[in-house]
Amino acid sequence: MEIVISLFIGAFMITAGICAIAWYKKECNSEGENKK
Amino acid sequence: MSIYFIGMCVAMVVFLFISKQVSKKVKDANDFYVAGRKAPLFLIAGSMIASYTSTGMFMGDAAEAYEGALAPMLLFAGMQSAGYILGAVFFGRYLRRSNAMTIPEFFGIRFCSNKLRKLAAITAIIMMSVYLLSVVQGVGTLMTAVTGVDYRICVTLAVLVFTYITVVSGSRGVLITDTLMAGLFTLSVLVSVFFVANEAGGWFPAISNIAQSIETKDLLSWAGRPGALYDTGFENMTWGIAYGIVWMSVCAVGPWQSSRYLMAKDEHTVIRSAPISAFVIFMLEFLVCTTAVIIRSLNPELADSSRVWIWAATNVIPTVLGVVLMTGVLSAGISSGTTFLSLIGAAVTNDMMSAQKTDSIKYGRYAMIITSVIVLVCALVNPPAIFVIMFLGGATAASSWMPVAFGSILSKRITKTGAFWGMLMGMVGCLAANLFQTFTGIKLPAYLDPAIIGMLCNVIAIIIGSALTQVTDEEKAARVALFVVPEKEKDSKEIKKTQKYLRGTILVGILIVLMLLILWVFPYYGRV
Known about the structure:
The complex is a heterodimer of chains A (about 35) and B (about 525). Chain A contains 1 helix and no strands. Chain A starts with a helix and ends with a helix. The mean pLDDT of chain A is about 85. In chain A, about 35% of the residues are buried. With about 525 residues, chain B is an all-alpha fold. Chain B is built from 21 helices and no strands. The longest helix of chain B is centred in the first third of the chain and has 49 residues. Chains A and B meet through helix 1 of A and helix 5, helix 12 and helix 21 of B.
């Protein structure tokens, strides 16, 4: 169970990171579209 | 005079001197309240870390771990760290982009509502005053315990120092002293952990020994020691997740955290600071809490568990390092005090009084001094009624602000009415749940933390309020304006660099897992 908790904490952080990367990329792309 | 007291006084004099020097560069309200919006990455990350770390972590969180609730503490600490990532990307950069002077002003601009701005300012003033009071009491208790100097003298000294720093040098001085204090605290904790582990026979043997003893193995297990928080492991885990959600919200949008973004030199700095803050805060929580368990193996008889680290600093760690460590903790408390006080001044002057720019600094300073006097009197007298308002501490940031803050960016349908009632009901729900617990003596289940109840009330009020009203053209335009990226943020090199930092959050997640496995789980199972 201690291993599960450790993996959960890491996965939680990584998921937050992936959401943040996707959102930032989306905004950068939409700016690119606007330029075109 | 105790060497600890001398060390603390020297540190305070150094911080006063620095703030005096910095004050010479404060020219206008922009400098005073948002550090001229020029702060580089290391100052933003340093101030984020310093604003979070205070006696609460060193005495409160460490005490919970000492009592046997390590795993739930780690769970909450891991989840809250993710709040820095989510807060910076989904809220902080838009906050910076709005060019607002305060977060209540941001809410006012986004929802075209002065009423909402005033409500946000009131909630900010309440939550930060309460938190400031608890920090002052914590610093006073710490100084008295370590130095033996009278509590009233310690509290008065601490209040005088952080008031002087804030009043004289404003946010610019707060950022610089915060970063120095964060560095001192982090470094002293890292070195102290080494000495404590060494005294217990080394980190890995110490963890293994605690895990192998029938009497102590619960301290490190996922379930924790029955009764430390709740009676069962399931309840403790539920508490960890609920508390993790609450503090993730606080770290994402809490005024003493997200207000740092207003001072960043650009949006890239806002985003880049997030993985640094997330990793350092988790590392500090992990080391402070896990080492508290190791300290218990050295002395399981402490009458007051909140003094676990103080005992180690005065009995285990070499005296010079103990002085540095205690000074670091004091600095962490003072740095939080400077942040809260500067934000209270900004909210009173800019949001409640709407003072003109020329008078803004003067009135801000008056507001800070009056707040300091009130907090000092409360810390000394501790009036009986204060406990009611103490319920509105950090949790208010989660229950009152979080849904509105994220909704202001992510939702097209949220209206000013929905936002206003959401913010109000979030605070009322949190307070009502706390009062219910106090006056009925009924302890709510772990998953129904008062802040969670407040957040639910907030979301329900937003949905109802927004369903009954229409988003105006003005509000639509305000939201659209937030999505227009300023020209200076479009440098492709800078964007690529920021994307690298964001990818660094994946690395932070991996490092956290490795830290937990290598320093906690494997030695717990006797694999190291």
